[in-house]
Amino acid sequence: MKQEEDNKPYYTGEAKFSPIPLIVSSPVIRPEDKGKIKSSAVETMQKQANQQIAMLRKQAEVIMGQVKEIEQRLEVSYGIYEAEMKFTPQINELYHLYEKEGNKVLSFISPKEWGSKMPYDLFLASVKLLPDKTWEVIEKATKKSQIEQ
């Protein structure tokens, strides 16, 4: 019985698909070291995953920066809409925000155009109305320019 099993051929399919060489002139087939294959695959997988994670983190940082910009724009916009305006602001036009006696005032006239006779206590910022009706700060007053005004 055991002898019959020993005489039984290992592979009976086509020679080109054989897992072992069937002919003496066949190229040598060496079994692969599964440990090497596994460690190489794991290393490559880790490198690829780390690279993708780093890329996603950079994208998240960019998105969080955009979120902060929008939040700041909203905060500025709320403040501007609370200011006194005697006109309807137009999209993409430049306006100037001032403070007079603790109240904010939006004006067409820039601080340079007022000269020395500016009727406001303080220049706060130059702003532009965006199509989404939020305001973008174009120029913010520095302490030096506030003192000069």
Describe it.
It is a single chain. The protein is built from four helices and four strands; from the N terminus they run H-H-E-E-H-E-E-H. It is of the alpha+beta class and 149 residues long. A hairpin with a 5-residue loop joins strand 3 and strand 4. The radius of gyration is 38 Å and the shape is rod-shaped. It has one domain. The termini are far apart. It has a four-stranded antiparallel sheet.
Which percent range fits the helix content? 40-55%
* Whole-number mean pLDDT: 83
Low-pLDDT residue spans? 144-149
Q: Which range does the strand content fall in?
A: 15-25%
Amino-to-carboxy terminus distance: 110 Å
Count of individual domains? 1
Number of helices: 4
Please state the CA-atom Rg, rounded to the nearest Å.
38 Å
Q: Structural class per helix/strand content?
A: alpha+beta
* Strands, total number: 4
Shape, per Cα inertia axes: rod-shaped
Query: Which sequence of SSEs, written as H and E, runs from N to C?
Result: HHEEHEEH
Feature tags:
4-stranded antiparallel β-sheet, 149 residues, 17% strand, 4 strands, alpha+beta, disordered C terminus
Concise structural overview:
This protein is of the alpha+beta class and 149 residues long. Helix content is 43%, strand content 17%.
Topology (SSEs and partners):
Elements: H1 2-7, H2 34-81, E1 94-100, E2 103-107, H3 111-114, E3 122-129, E4 135-140, H4 143-148
Antiparallel strand pairs: 1-2, 1-3, 3-4
